[in-house]
Structure formats: C-alpha cells, structure tokens
Design a protein that fits this description.
By secondary structure, the protein is of the alpha/beta class. The chain folds into three domains: 210 residues, 3-Layer(bba) Sandwich (FAD/NAD(P)-binding domain), CATH 3.50.50; 111 residues, FAD/NAD(P)-binding domain (3-Layer(bba) Sandwich), CATH 3.50.50.60; 113 residues, Enolase-like, domain 1, CATH 3.30.390.30. Strand 13 and strand 14 form a beta hairpin. Helix 1 runs parallel beside helix 9, helix 3 packs antiparallel against helix 4 and helix 3 packs parallel to helix 6. It is globular. Bound molecules: flavin-adenine dinucleotide. The site of flavin-adenine dinucleotide has 36 residues, from helix 1, strand 2, helix 2, helix 3 and strand 4. Belongs to the class-I pyridine nucleotide-disulfide oxidoreductase family. Pfam families: Pyr_redox_2, Pyr_redox_dim. Its cofactor is FAD. This is Dihydrolipoyl dehydrogenase.
Length: 467
C-alpha cells in the first residue's frame, strides 16, 4: 500500500495549489481526481472557459458596435462561427489543464485518477474503472469543491433547462435565454449570449443584481447592461419552470404578487452552487458536514478529525478560485508547522462582464450596518483620458475610508480592467494604507488606475484633480 504524508482529494484550484505547496515543503503528496483532466470546476467548466467566451464575444461586439467609431470599416457582414468559438474555448481549457499535469509532474506529486472515499481517518480508497486502490495518508485535505445548485421545483434537463456547465458548450446561440439569478455567473454568461445576438432576460429574487456587492455597483452594472439590451426583472420570485418541446416557460411572481411568465428557448439556472461531498464517505472518517452540506472547519481549516482538513468551495466562505488557493497554501504551511493567516476581508470579488466589476473590503451598506463612521470618494471613469481614448467610459472607482483615521475600508470599481485594478486596492488595504497614501502615490498617465488615485483624493479631502 502506498503511504503519503498528504493526500489531497480534488484537483481544483484549492486542491492542486495545496498539493504543490505541500510538495514544495517536502511532503510526499498524492492528489486524487475523479475526472481525467485536472483543474476542477475553475479550469474545466468555470473561470477559464467562461472568460474565453467572454473575450470572444467581447471581440465580436467590438467589431459590430465600436470598430466604426475608431474608423475601422469591415466590408461585408461580420459573422460568428459559433462552433469555432466553442472549440477555441475547449482548446484554452485543454492547454490550461495540461499545465496542471506539468506542474504535478514537476513537483513529483502522484496523480491518482478515480473517486476518493474515506475508509477510515487515515485510509482512502480510490475507485476507478480499473478497480479499487487503497492508500494511506497521514493527513488528508478535502478539496472536492461544488456543483451548480438548483431550486427544488426545477428539473434540469441539461438541454434547454441548463446550468453554467451546459451554457459553456451549447451547439447554437439561443434566441431568448431566460437567466434565473442575477449573480456573477448568470450575468457573465447572460452577457456572452446577449453579445452574440440572443435576447436575454435576467430574473432575480432580490431587489438588485449582484446583491452582495456595493449598491452603487449594482446600479451602474444594471444601467450599462440595460444599454447593452439585457432585460432585468428584479424582486421576482420564480415558482415554476416548464419545458414543452423546444420552449421553456418560467413563471414568477413580482413584488406586487402578480404572476409573470417568460418564454424562451433556453433557461439558464444560475442560483448559486452547493458544496460537493457525494461519494466521499465522510462518515467513515467521522468528518462533520453541516446542514448546508459544507464540511465544518475551524480557523486552521481543520475538520473535527485532527488530521483531516478541508478547503475551497466545500467549506464556508466565498466560492472563489483565489480563496480556495489561499486556503490550500494555508493548510500546507500549517502542516509544515508554520503559522499562516488569511484575511478574508481582503479576498477580492470580481464580475467579468464588460465593464468589469471588482470589489474588496466593506461595502457602504455593511459600514452603515456596522455603524462605522466613514467617508466616501468616487471618481467617474469618463473623466479619464485613458477611458476616452479606448471608448470605455462607463463606471467609477469608489473608495470608502474611516472618517477619523482615513484608513481604506472598501474599494468598489466598475470599469474597464476593474479586475486588474482591484489588486492595487488589495495591496493598499493589506498594508493598511490611508486614502491619502493612495492619493499621494504616482499613477502612470494615462491609465485606468488614475481613477483609483482620483477616488482616493476625493475620499481624503474631496480634492480630486480631474472632476
Ligand atoms: P473545484 O474547482 O470545484 O474542484 C473540485 C474537484 O474535486 C473537481 O475536479 C471534482 O471532480 C473533484 N472531486 C470531487 N469529489 C471527488 C472525489 N470524491 N474524488 C475525487 N475527486 C473529487 N471563481 C473565480 O475566482 N473567478 C472566476 O472568474 C470564476 N468564474 C466561474 C465561472 C463559472 C461558470 C463557475 C461555475 C465558477 C466560477 N468560479 C470563479 C468559481 C470557481 O470555479 C470555484 O470557486 C473554484 O473552482 C473552487 O475550487 P475548489 O478547488 O474548491 O473546487
């Protein structure tokens, strides 16, 4: 029987990063993955393929809507080769997952293909078509991730009533896609198909889209996506989804309790994700799973069984790849006797629509609720030379700072390259910078990042230069 210092179950961004860091720290490591490709949700059916389609559809939209403004004329019609677009996405995924094979090899991590399940606290059975193999592991890291969630009355047929996984491999562009859920995944994929010509209706239960982000961001993104042709139905509670042949009817009640129906050829159900532990046999090791289906962990990401840890989407907290990665590193370093730490307040959240939406720290609504005395500085993207040059004038940077100490408490951006811009905010907040610290740093001109400096100036003493 093979024996390991660490066995990692699941090869998503949590699992493979944990495995690499364990190997770097000298531990004999195995990673168990039930699929033939490594990389988990993120690389196979999440972050990477969705960004590939967002980029392809963005290029198309630029060509049909904005090239002309730049004096670029295309003789004849611009056409979509949807199959090629989907094939390109598949090849991006393939290159990326192969990169993980390379990294496993480089770090001498044993890759075991099959479903991992506990036999007891220190033994794991790996089941595949070739039969069962049992390994012994001094420590185990559970990184089994999540799967799309649904509503109890919705039967996902995965053809017309679909999740994000199917939406990434459609064979045709929908005529009318009804998206249930105005969160990150629904908006990103909704925007992809809107750009490609579909009618897109987003039906959201809460009174605004991206409800966990700053209200100003929800408002701005709604405004911009409406301009792009997406229809929004907030405060609508979906009560039924029915398919008849190639038609799907979605029934909802609005806030006045009036029944509304939407008919489309596809319905994308994007109502969140559920932690995934099916087949893991946690009970055999005595690992506790809570009522939400998450594996219970303490602040060291240790389960109630002391040699078993859990990370990523299968535990509490934001379901984000970079959060899973940080947790993977934390557990590896803890096992090596170090004392790592994660500041969950500084895990940024991003929506990769265009304009992008990015956020870190507290929202204005949270600060109000926590009764924190704060000040706010906001700067519009349209006032930047860089934005005018590219034509990306939607959005803003908003900085929230402590009224007394000027410490930055939250940064919320809507705009071109917001996903990259937020890194400056994370760095500043990690070092507990004040708004004035950011305001006094030189930002290259012309860049979108100048909006961060200007918003910091606005937050410091309401003294932006360019507005
Ligand atoms: P996962 O990536 O889910 O990996 C878990 C792995 O464990 C899977 O490969 C699974 O097959 C394997 N597994 C499960 N059980 C077993 C078992 N018993 N034996 C063996 N193997 C097992 N996050 C971002 O940060 N940025 C984004 O842009 C982004 N975009 C997304 C877009 C979409 C459409 C979706 C669906 C998600 C997106 N996410 C994004 C979320 C991100 O994908 C997840 O947060 C991330 O993948 C979680 O990583 P993980 O390692 O916890 O689990």
């Amino acid at each position: 029987m093979s024996t390991y210092d660490v066995a990692v179950i699941g090869s998503g961004p949590g699992g493979y990063v944990a495995a690499i860091r364990c190997a770097q720290l000298g531990m004999k490591t195995a990673i168990i993955e039930k699929y033939n490709t490594l990389g988990g949700t993120c690389l196979n059916v999440g972050c990477i393929p969705s960004k590939a389609l967002l980029d392809s559809s963005h290029h198309y939209e630029e060509a049909i809507k904005h090239f002309e403004d730049h004096g670029i004329e295309i003789p004849g019609d611009v056409k979509i080769n949807f199959k090629k677009m989907i094939d390109r996405k598949a090849s991006v995924v393939e290159q990326t997952t192969k990169g993980i094979d390379f990294l496993m090899n480089k770090n001498k991590i044993d890759v075991l293909t099959g479903v991992g399940s506990f036999k007891d606290e220190t033994h794991i059975v790996v089941s595949s078509e070739d039969g069962d193999k049992t390994i012994e592991a001094k420590n185990t890291i559970i990184a089994t991730g999540s799967k799309p969630a649904t509503l109890p009355f919705i039967e996902l047929d995965k053809e017309r009533i679909i999740t994000s996984t199917e939406a990434l491999t459609l064979k045709e562009i929908p005529k009318h896609m009804v998206v249930i859920g105005g969160g990150v995944i629904g908006l990103e994929l909704g925007q992809v198909y809107r750009r490609l010509g579909a009618e897109v209706s987003v039906v959201e239960y809460m009174d605004r889209i991206i409800p966990t982000m700053d209200k100003a961001q929800s408002k701005e993104l709604t405004k911009v996506m409406k301009k792009q042709g997406v229809k929004f139905y907030v405060s609508h509670k979906v009560s039924a989804v029915e398919r008849k042949k190639d038609e799907v009817t979605i029934t909802a009640t609005d806030k006045k309790d009036k029944e509304v129906t939407f008919t489309g050829d596809y319905c994308l159900v994007s109502v969140g994700r559920r932690p995934f532990t099916d087949g893991l046999k946690t009970d055999k090791a005595g690992v506790k799973v809570n009522e939400k289906g998450q594996i219970e962990v303490n602040e060291h990401l240790q389960t109630n069984v002391k040699n078993i840890y859990a990370i990523g989407d299968v535990v509490r907290g934001a379901m984000l790849a970079h959060k899973a990665e940080e947790e993977g590193v934390l557990v590896a370093e803890t096992l090596a006797g170090q004392k790592p730490h994660i500041d969950y307040n500084l895990i940024p959240g991003v929506v990769y629509t265009w304009p992008e939406v990015a956020s870190v720290g507290k929202t204005e609504e949270q600060l109000k609720e926590d009764k924190v005395d704060y000040k706010s500085g906001q700067f519009p993207m349209r006032a930047l030379g860089r934005s005018r040059a590219s034509g990306d004038t939607d959005g803003f940077v908003k900085i929230l700072a402590d009224k007394e100490t000027d410490e930055v408490l939250g940064v919320h951006i809507v705009g071109a390259r917001a996903a990259d811009l937020i890194a400056e905010a994370v760095t500043a907040m990690e070092f507990r910078a004040s708004a004035e610290d950011i305001a006094r740093m030189s930002h290259a001109h012309p860049t979108y990042a100048e909006a961060v400096k200007e918003a910091a100036l606005a937050a410091t003493e309401n003294r932006p230069i360019h507005s």
